[in-house]
Amino acid sequence: xxxxxxxxxxxxxxxxxxxxxxxxxxxxxxxWQITNECNLACLHCIEESGPGKAFPDELGEAEVFRVLDxxxxxxxxxVSFSGGEPMVHPQFFAMVERACANGRQLxxxxxxxxxxxxTCERLRALGVKAxxxxxxxxxxxxxxxxxxxxxFNTAVDGTKNLRAAGVPIEINFSPTRFNIREIGAAVDLAYxxxxxxxYTGRTMYTGNAVKTWRIVxxxxxxxAEFFDVLRAKADEYRGRMRVHFHEMGLLEELRYRLQHPAxxxxxxxxxxxxxxxxxxxxxxxxRTQSLAEIWSNFRNAWHDPRVARFIxxxxxxxRGTSALHKWVYV
Amino acid sequence: MRLAKxxxxxxxxxxxxxxxxxxxxxxxxxxxxxxxxREIQAGRPEHExxxxxxxxxxxxxxxxxxxxxxxxxxxRQRGLMDE
Lengths: 330, 83
Description:
The complex is a heterodimer of chains A (330) and B (83).
Chain A: E1 2-3, E2 13-14, E3 29-33, H1 61-73, E4 78-82, H2 92-101, E5 105-110, H3 117-126, E6 130-134, H4 140-146, H5 152-165, E7 169-173, H6 183-192, E8 197-201, H7 208-216, H8 220-236, E9 242-246, H9 250-259, E10 264-267, E11 272-274, E12 281-285, H10 291-301, H11 305-316, E13 328-329
Parallel strand pairs in A: 3-4, 3-10, 4-5, 5-6, 6-7, 7-8, 8-9, 12-13
Antiparallel strand pairs in A: 10-11, 11-12
Chain B: E1 2-3, E2 7-12, E3 15-20, E4 25-29, H1 31-41, H2 46-54, E5 57-58, H3 63-77, E6 81-82
Antiparallel strand pairs in B: 1-6, 2-3, 3-4
Helix pairs in contact in B: 1-2, 2-3
């Protein structure tokens, strides 16, 4: 089959590798940390969120909706709201409504503490694509130790409310020294709660984890056992629930991304846009620049020599990730 | 026949992309594939798609039909379609 106008061959859909971000007119995915405020103060939080931790300069109401309008104009298909805890944002439901009404696929990443039955029904009615709940443990003991001010039973009940309302559920699990051996039970729990996806990977040395690393960091032996269990669980739940895990270390991941940047923008609560969460580089500011302008800069920014140098330096000293919140403008 | 609820299509200079947001997988489409997906989105029945594209492609008898059929089967096999 030949397309006269474009001179190409038969219809094809290729999944690997995806189109380079250089070829795309706009991002495919915008991961938006809508606030840094949180009701919990988790030991491993990469954003150092917590009560009273909202940035002093977070985007205001009018600015937030201007960003949402640009996501629609640029036809960004997939958006996530995270935080902090996104559900404490004063405009949370209005933002969800605006995003969903215009055909975006919206995922909400929450600690699960605000998911009463009525709220879950509202999320379903608005057309949220999925809610991802952080369940770092299969027991109250480990969950509550890790999620300071959090309550395991509340998060589990909230997840049950999502299921009752018919909202698709994803579960996220961050491993630490004291919950890592619960991984098998945590995957089983996610399935019992009705999740269609389970996500996990290595906990990153940044944010609150820098201060708590001595008590939270699993050993390589523990990680080896953890990934063995996950491989077995992925097989066990194949076709019923997707068990997705990043076994790759951060350095390998970043080296891969340097060659193959994902078509993903990370938006911070104050409108700054990062290249990727695990790097300190900022490639735009939605307060002063359009999304289209930032997307153009994003593609150039990955070629900035400082980005490659930062990644190379991580090979020498992995503790470089502790400085992710000291933003570098590229 | 339509794209699955979790699948979003966007046109691009090189053709288009399908983004399956449940698995977060991206499929790149060449211009011909993008044309088929546009027809699916427009609600055209499967058996009419090849003839709708016929005027735009050089191909021997029955070639377009076979290729469109194979492409739609591939979309189904990857879970990108709802019936």
